[in-house]
Amino acid sequence: MITEEQQDDAIFELSADLREVGKQILKLLRKGAVDVPLFPKIATDVMRLAKSPDTDAATLADLIQRHTTLAGHVIRVANSPLYTPNASMVSLQQAIARLGLNAICEIS
Prior knowledge:
Blueprint: H1 4-31, H2 41-51, H3 57-64, H4 68-78, H5 92-99, H6 101-107
Helix pairs in contact: 2-3, 2-6, 3-5, 4-5
C-alpha cells in the first residue's frame, strides 16, 4: 500500500517534470520550431452563428453539413447514450436541436 508521503512525493516529482516539459515547449515556441495550428475556420463560424439570436437548428445544420468530419462528430455525440438513450438521430438538424447551441459550440 502506498503511503500519503509517497503519494505527495510522486505529485511533487510529476509537478517538476511537467514544469520542465513546459519550459521546453516554450523554448521551442519562441524559436519558431513548433507550429501551433490555428483554430479551424469552421469552428469560429459555428460559434459565431450559434451565438446569434436569430440562429436556428436548420441554419446551423446548413453550415455544419459543409464540413463532413464535424457533421459526423455532431451526429455521433447526439446519438450517444447521454443524449439519446432510446433512439437514434436521423438528421443533422435533429442532432443540433437535441444537443443545443451551447453544446454545438463546445464540440466544434
